[in-house]
Amino acid sequence: MRTVGVEEELLLVDPDTGDPKALASAVLARAAQDDPGQDVFEKELFGQMLEFATHPQSDMAALGDEIVRCRKEAARHAGEIGCGVAALASSPLPVSPSLSVNERYQWLAQRYGIPTWEQLVCGCHVHVSVESDEEGVAVLDRIRPWLPVLRATSANSPFWQGRSTGYASYRSRVWNRWPSAGPTELFGSPEEYHRRVAAMVATGVILDEGMVYFDARLSARYPTVEIRVADVCLGAETAVLFATLVRALVETAAREWRAGRPVSDPGVSMLRLADWQAARHGLEEDLLDPVTLRPRPAPQVLRSLLEYTGDALTSSGDAERAERAVEELLRTGNGAREQRGLFERTGSLRDVVTECVRRTQA
Which one of the record's GO molecular function terms can you name (predicted)? Predict the structure, then answer.
């Protein structure tokens, strides 16, 4: 069974006011003091962000337990210095980002200017194991039309710098300002994948292979494909559902490749439209159907993902749990809907943040 690992970025905030706090270094120092050998938590681009990574897991319940444990540990370390953590993909409140002390991050700020300073956004990256680069590239080529559906599922950034954006996932619009971000063309082979990555680095526009910010890519560090479209999810249960769907999608694509089935190629221009639609509306209105690329109600499209990956979900023992989780998500909504609901009830973005701190740490 394929293993899955999750990386989540969390927002560090004042637990009373909701204002982002640039205290990542202090939180990491506290974590290192408690566990000198810890390799779970890392700093990110800005001091208001904290990242953690789970270990590879084959059982999704165990993965969920680890996500919850990591969130609670992050909250404990932050709480010891008077800070809170929130699984928010963007800050609802105005913030002036504080760049982390790091030569790489300094290079980004000098190279890209204002877009770098706008990247105080928190994502969720899911790694799924593959047997080889050949299998990995075959998977990347086949999952492309479904990535916007995954983005809509995770959408959790409707507010930005004190304003409602009109988007369910505004983080994705900010992230796509990087020159290498977004959907990709077909690669066809690992040789072509690596040739294209090398050509991108050779332009000098990006620093290195780590800056190849495709929506899905081969990991440069692990034998995995890395799916990078998700906002950090407000609820840990949504993160587990997301990872479950990603693994099933990877397994389904690998089976199609082994069976010699042809690759669908809607083209990058159509994938960009589907991705925009997903970021704009999340699960609230139509998505572009991955097969027909025509509008279709989001709940129907999400259920069609369950159907498409059904054999893989059954093989891994995840089918019933995934079906229940999808129906619960459609009933209660993703993070974007929950944040908007909180704002409608309270009229205060500060209350939105402080309630999301409670949800994250619960």
Answer: glutamate-cysteine ligase activity
The C-alpha atoms of residue 64 and residue 150 are separated, in whole angstroms, by 18
d(CA 301, CA 326): 11
pLDDT digits (tens, 9 = 90+) for 109-154: 999 999 999 999 999 999 999 999 999 999 999 999 999 999 999 9
- Report which residue type is found at 75: A
pLDDT of residue 271: 98
**Exposure string (b/e) for 16-44, b if CB count within 10 Å is 16 or more?**
eebebbbbbebbbebbeeeeeeeebbbbb
Beta strands in 150-208 (DSSP E): 159-160, 163-164
CA distances from 336 to 29, 81, 160, 211, 273 (A): 32, 29, 12, 28, 20
- Confidence at residue 25, expressed as pLDDT on a 0 to 100 scale: 96
The rounded distance, in Å, linking the Cα atoms of 298 and 270 is: 17
Tokens of 46: 């800005």
**What's the CA gap between 359 and 362, in Å, rounded?**
5
Residues of the chain with pLDDT under 50: none
pLDDT at 295: 98
Cα angle 77, 49, 208 (rounded to 5 degrees) comes to 130
pLDDT of residue 361: 82
| Residues 7, 11, 16, 17, Cα dihedral to 10° | -160
How many separate domains does the chain show?
1
CATH number of the domain within which 67 lies: 3.30.590.20
- Sequence-ordered list of residues with C-beta below 8 angstroms from that of 304, at least 6 positions apart, any chain: 289, 290, 291
Tell the residue number behind the tokens 């810890």, with chain if given: 38
The predicted-structure confidence for 150-191, as pLDDT tens digits, reads as follows 999 999 999 999 999 999 999 999 999 999 999 999 999 999
Among residues 234, 242, 123, the alpha carbon closest in space to that of 175 is found at: 123
Pair type for strands 84-86 and 4-13: antiparallel
Contact predicate 62/11, CB 8 Å: no
